[in-house]
Amino acid sequence: MSNNNSYLSNYFHRNGRALGSIGYFVLLMIIFFIGAPEAWIRPNLHQSVFVMMPTLIFLTIPLVFLVASGEIDLSFASTYAVAAYVFALLVKNGVDPAICFVLGVFTGAAIGALVGTLIVVFRLSSLVASLGVLFLLRGVILLLTNSRSITIMEVENHWIYPLLVGNFYGFPMQIFWAAIFVIFCYYFFNKHVFGIHIQHVGDNSVSAEQMGINVNAVKIKAFMFVGIGSAIGGIFTTMITYTFFPTQGFGYLLLALAAVFVGGTPYWGGLGTIIGAVFGVGIIAYMEIGIIAIGWSGEWRQFFNGLIILLALLGHRLHGERVR
Amino acid sequence: MENIIELNKVTKRFGGITALNKASLKVTKGEVVGLIGDNGAGKSTLIKTLVGVYSPDEGDIFIRGEKINSWNALKARESGIETVFQDRALTPQQSIVKNIFMGKELRYPLGFIKEKEQIFEANRLIREIGFTSKLINAESPVGNLSGGERQGVAIARAIYNNAELIVLDEPTNNLSLNETQKVFDFVLNVKKSNRSVLFIGHNIYHVYDISDRFVILDRGEVVHQLNKSDVSTPEELMKIMRDTIKTH
Q1: Is the ipTM of this complex over 0.85?
Q2: pTM reported for the whole predicted model
Q3: Out of A226, A283, B25, B30, which could bridge A62 as a Cys pair, Cβ 3.0 to 4.6 Å?
């Protein structure tokens, strides 16, 4: 009996936060359904959520890795635009879009590596330093583009367009890519040395160092992963709309961060949940679109976003304080 | 006798403070060395240099007679040196199994973890160490364990890796009598299997009981070394220690 209890309690220790975030998601769906059943059964509502979710997933899931490692990054919202800019500029100049995609993702990884190195080597606060980079990179883009957008209709005729963001029996392709990304990240976080080391480093970096884990390298790789995720998100969005906007990505800054924490990953490091984050993204995306769908005015959106973050935080508190 | 590790005139400074001053120390196969000294004598710095957490500013490190150029914690572990740190070096939010395999996970070629094998081995080690509570299994978080149980996890990690030299930094601190006895039994078992132990403590009775050789450290310098046969009681060892520190 006691053994059963211990397995149960270990199960909740491992999965409680993910289950909590699934619970909030279901609750939100029920509220929306009761609020506006006729709007809720219309497929176009869910379609627009499905268009928004993949981008948020590419931004949010890598942030779970970074937050679990004990760091935070705000600059991803600008990295998103820089990578998309590199992609759009190269496409415009006649480079093969597939190569542009790879170079765009590489740009994201490079920015992540630079930000991470800056923070780790000089022991800067990741919150403040990445805030600086957020503004700096956005400024660079605005200066380089003169605040003008770039239209790239030409990607439509290239094979990567239907492959990455085309239509598959009525479903946008990016949903499948996001799903593959989530599955990959689940195993990467929970079953791979990289994810396990991230959890040790975020839990107690002194212990990790004493056991021979290269703490700085682990953290820099986590920043790189965030850069890669933002680059993919930025390039996907640019392809979907055929346009690069110099301001693109800024709107996702707070939404992606909210999704991480609503999803049940605590801010203090050492723990994280990929499944929870997916439902966190679901909650945020449905909030953004659902409020309008049930006939309330857009002014309510931020109010409810705020409310759900606070409620989620209070709920996740049930999983207890940080153990030391 | 084969030397497992030898530090030769190692100096370590932190800012303007010299924590270790030309300290030399060697551990040979199958012996238990007790490192003693007052608080602030440099015991922890010496240990952390020995196991690669700190890199020395001056001096040489030899592993089995071979000079090592760059030394770090991972290399120390790969050379067969495992450490039970004073702070246990655990990550409390993670499971026992993750802690036991921290930094030396059992891996498939692409870096994915052999989870089942790790859990099986961890459960075996938990039984071997003798956790009494049925509530504890390999997947319990370390944060739920008592001080002695946490020490057990740190020791399990050192055993699993089959180290040739196990370094125990103040292993009996904050432990009950029963738990302290367990640590002693562990040290004797390691010695029996012809492996070596470096035991650090400021309880001289503990160090005296299990060591074959004593190294006295004071203000970052190794001031005296003697064999167990040179002293007959812990009180005598204590007196020698006091005298060498005074005259130093």
Answers
A1: yes
A2: 0.92
A3: A226
